[in-house]
Every structure is written in structure tokens, then in C-alpha cells.
């Protein structure tokens, strides 16, 4: 599994990974028009529900893809993000047969190999707040407790998404979200989230905020509200 780490504020807006599991294609390859059609299809299919998946073409030139917007994002902002992600991933990876791109509001992933329903453990990165908390042991425990509760809520939700908050010290609160791509089963969503929550000590030990973002699931926590109210 490849793990990349970034402090928040550096590369926070967009992360791109060329998976290169399947190599490249050349100009005028039959795969290219299928990928172009898939990109356009996902930009239309995703915004109404926040998730879209599909495939275009026939083997061996079939293109598979999905897009997911963060659970609190409006349909309009979802569309903006997915359209930009689809444009950017094709610009930056013009001949890659598979790639994945993440933004704050969405992710976009495609491949020439079917991956639906499979937990993606290969693509992952960490982000964390540079500031440390004053009582790391107690804070870490609270963080894990909140994210575990949200993981249990997410896998029981048809949208595979949950967000919430918990009391910290005095009037301070901790805010979090967990989310899976909706091609996963509920049980695999729970498995995926449990796996990335297990990355907390490596990612965000004693940090005021952090994220583990993968190709199939992600979490985020902060000591300030960061979600949109729908």
C-alpha cells in the first residue's frame, strides 16, 4: 500500500495519482473515446445523488469509472467538482489507462479493469494539521471513539456517509465525517473504514485535525466545523 502524507495547507486542494497498473494507451486507441464518454457520463450522473459509476465500451477497450462527492456537498457544488476533476485528470494523465484524483469535495477514478465492489487499499494519503493538541492521549482516544461511532453510522446509511461531533474540553468540540464509495457493500464499507481508522497513530497522532483518504473510503476530523449545512 502506498501512503503519502501532507500537512494541511500544502496540496490541500487536489491530489492526483496515476495508478499505472494497466500502463498507457496511445493516440487514436479505441480506449480513448470510451474514456472520454465515461468522463462526460459521470459528470451528469453523479451530482443528483452525490455518486455515479458506470462503464462504456466493450472489452478489451472498456472504461470503468466512478465519482463520489462529499456527503454534505450540494448538487451544484458536486457538479462543479466532478466536472473539474474529470477535466483535470484527463489533462494530467492523458494516456494513462487508470488514474484517481481527489479534491476536498469529490473524487474521480477510472480504469480499464473493473474494480467495482472491491476495497481499494492501494491508493491512500494522509493530511494533518500542523498544530498539536495539549493533551494528546485523551484527544487521540476521543478522536478514535468519534470516528468509530461515525463508521458504524456510515455503513448502516444507504449513502455510506456519516458526520457528527462530540464534546472535548469545556465548550470545545471535535467534528468528524466518514464516507465510502457506494459501489461497496455495507460490510466492506465498515471494513474499509475500520482499516483507515487504524491508520490514526501513523497519520495524525496528537494533531488538531487530520484525514486519511483512500480510493474507497475516507475520514476527516477537525476541532472546528468544516461541513456544509444542507
Question: How many helices?
Answer: 5
Proportion in β-strands:
25-35%
Strand order of the largest sheet: 1-7-10-11-9-8
CA distance, first residue to last residue: 35 Å
Number of strands: 11
Radius of gyration: 18 Å
Overall geometry: elongated
Describe the largest sheet.
6 strands, mixed
- Low-confidence segments, ≥5 residues, pLDDT <50? 1-12
For the structure shown, list the relevant keywords.
230 residues, alpha+beta, six-stranded mixed sheet, five-stranded antiparallel sheet, 5 helices, 11 strands, elongated, disordered N terminus, secreted, CRR_secretory_protein, GNK2, repeat, Gnk2-homologous domain-containing protein
Write the layout of secondary structure elements.
Elements (H helix, E strand, L loop, with lengths): L1 E6 L6 E5 L12 H15 L5 E6 L6 E7 L5 H18 L6 E5 L2 E6 L11 E6 L7 H20 L5 E7 L5 E8 L5 H12 L2 H5 L5 E5 L2 E6 L8
Parallel strand pairs: 1-7
Antiparallel strand pairs: 2-5, 3-4, 4-6, 5-6, 7-10, 8-9, 9-11, 10-11
Could you walk me through the main structural features you see in this protein, from its secondary elements to its overall organization?
With 230 residues, this protein is α+β, with helices and mostly antiparallel strands. It has 5 helices and 11 strands. It has a 6-stranded mixed sheet. Strands 2-5-6-4-3 form a 5-stranded antiparallel sheet. It is elongated, with a radius of gyration of 18 Å.
At a glance:
The protein is an alpha+beta fold and 230 residues long.
